[in-house]
């Protein structure tokens, strides 16, 4: 097994190779901050690598950053993150393990929380930790440098974040730390802090950042362009099918560990067939093949043949709090849309249909004939819903 495949940067590769050749069991660390309830497919890229080390007999350490989450990782940020309460962090963290063990082997995973040591750290020890880093060194980070040049505020606690993440590596005595490529600076701080205390410095492996559903930026909960571990089978399948063709191969490689030869074969096929295969395999990974094939069949029935899905959200008019049953007001009450402005845009773009007929007026009234009458709305390519009297 090539443990450095699909990596972007490897620091300490020679030391890592020596330890692997010697048959040493390595402590491999991956940290996640529970800033929101859901893990995403962007996290899966690194979880897959941790699973590879685990399968090769090494100790997989999943670090829940319940302490660092309250600071907020400043990586890639142009502004200070909103502060989370301890209750919010704990609530988010409680969901992470169930999600993580959909990839990792629970019986072979060591789970730690960095509140174990930071909640006990004295102020004197915290001040001593700050001596390990200069302001000039911290400003070498692109995000800090850009914010400094544009007069955007940088809090002292954000300066502490890389040191805190690095100190985790000292406590855990990690041999390897893995993470996204945007974490390189933070992971190198851990390597340096280990050197400071006379430990063998950890090797650092960065993984490529998975492009999100917008096809441009990294997959992130902050950008709302993500697929979540906790998404339904229908949502996983549908979101994958919404990907642009040019990012499909990255998903095969980073999420499903396809080798170049297999991807070359896929490139010879029709893009739609290839994307259906991707959606089916990723849905199977989180559910099972039977459910995935059901979603494939449903997708073909609805989108390829122009039919409506068998299942969709249904809303009783009597239960919606609206003054008048205009299409705009009814749709706004479903909470399926960000705003009334989004609904108006869809209608203006000709992307809204009521019982198969294009809608041009957002203020049109919905009229029902009898108690059992119902109306089906299609918004864009993916949203179907039903109103009933």
List keywords for this structure.
about 15% strand; 3 domains; about 45% helix; about 400 residues; 11 strands; Rossmann fold; six-stranded mixed β-sheet; five-stranded mixed β-sheet; Structural Genomics Hypothetical 15.5 Kd Protein In mrcA-pckA Intergenic Region, Chain A; 16 helices; alpha/beta
Quick structural overview:
The chain is an alpha/beta fold and 389 residues long. Helix content is 43%, strand content 13%. It folds into three domains: 9-207, 3-Layer(aba) Sandwich (Rossmann fold), CATH 3.40.50.620; 233-304, no CATH class; 314-388, RNA-binding S4 domain (Structural Genomics Hypothetical 15.5 Kd Protein In mrcA-pckA Intergenic Region, Chain A).
Describe this structure in words.
The protein is α/β, with parallel strands linked by helices. The protein folds into 3 domains: 9-207, Rossmann fold, CATH 3.40.50; 233-304, no CATH class; 314-388, RNA-binding S4 domain (Structural Genomics Hypothetical 15.5 Kd Protein In mrcA-pckA Intergenic Region, Chain A). It contains 16 helices and 11 strands. The strands form 2 sheets. It has a 6-stranded mixed sheet, sandwiched between helices.
CATH T-level topology of the largest domain:
Rossmann fold
Following the backbone from N to C, one meets helices and strands in this order, namely: EHEHEHEHHHHHEHEHHHHHEHHEEEE
Count of alpha and pi helical runs: 16
Q: Strand order of the main beta sheet, please?
A: 1-6-5-2-3-4
Distance between the termini: 60 Å
CATH class of the largest domain: Alpha Beta
CATH-level-4 superfamily name of the largest domain: HUPs
Summarize the amount of helix as a percent range. Answer: 40-55%
User: Strand tally, please?
Assistant: 11
Class from secondary-structure proportions: alpha/beta
Low-confidence stretches: none
Indicate the CATH architecture of the largest domain.
3-Layer(aba) Sandwich
The general outline is globular
Tally the structural domains.
3
- For the report, how would you describe the main beta sheet? 6 strands, mixed
What is the arithmetic mean of pLDDT? 87
Strand content bin: 5-15%
Gyration radius, in Å: 24 Å
């Amino acid at each position: 097994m090539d443990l450095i495949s699909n990596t972007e940067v490897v620091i300490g590769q020679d030391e890592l190779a020596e330890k692997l050749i010697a048959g040493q069991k390595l402590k491999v660390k991956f940290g996640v901050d529970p800033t929101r309830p859901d893990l995403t497919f962007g996290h899966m890229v690194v979880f897959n690598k941790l699973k590879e080390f685990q399968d090769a007999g090494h100790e997989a350490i999943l670090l829940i950053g319940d302490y660092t989450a309250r600071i907020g990782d400043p990586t890639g940020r142009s502004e200070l993150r909103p502060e989370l309460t301890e209750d919010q962090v704990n609530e988010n963290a409680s969901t992470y393990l169930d999600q993580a063990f959909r990839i990792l082997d629970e019986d072979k995973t060591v789970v730690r929380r960095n509140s174990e040591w930071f909640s006990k750290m004295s102020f004197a020890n915290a001040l001593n930790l700050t001596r390990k880093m200069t302001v000039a060194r911290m400003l070498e980070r692109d995000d800090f440098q850009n914010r400094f040049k544009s007069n955007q505020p940088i809090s002292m606690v954000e300066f502490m974040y890389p040191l805190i993440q690095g100190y985790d590596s000292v406590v855990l005595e990690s041999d390897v730390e893995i993470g996204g490529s945007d974490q390189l600076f933070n992971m190198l701080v851990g390597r340096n802090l280990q050197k400071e205390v006379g430990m063998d410095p950890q090797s650092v492996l960065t993984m490529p950042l998975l492009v999100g559903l917008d096809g441009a930026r990294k997959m992130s909960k902050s950008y709302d362009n993500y697929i979540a571990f906790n998404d339904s089978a229908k949502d996983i399948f549908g979101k994958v099918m919404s990907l642009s063709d040019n990012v499909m191969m990255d998903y095969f490689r980073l999420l499903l560990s396809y080798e170049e030869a297999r991807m070359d074969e896929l490139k010879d096929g029709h893009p739609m067939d290839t994307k259906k295969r991707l959606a089916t395999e990723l849905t199977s990974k989180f559910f099972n093949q039977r459910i995935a094939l059901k979603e494939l069949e449903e997708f073909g029935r609805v989108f390829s043949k122009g039919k409506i899905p068998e299942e969709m959200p249904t809303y009783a008019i009597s239960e919606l709090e609206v003054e008048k049953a205009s299409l705009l007001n009814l749709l706004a009450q479903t909470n399926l849309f960000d705003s009334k402005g989004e609904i108006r845009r869809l209608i203006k773009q000709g992307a809204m249909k009521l019982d198969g007929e294009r809608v041009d007026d957002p203020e049109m009234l919905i009229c029902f004939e009898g108690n059992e009458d119902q109306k089906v709305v299609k918004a864009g390519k993916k949203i179907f819903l039903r109103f009933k009297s």
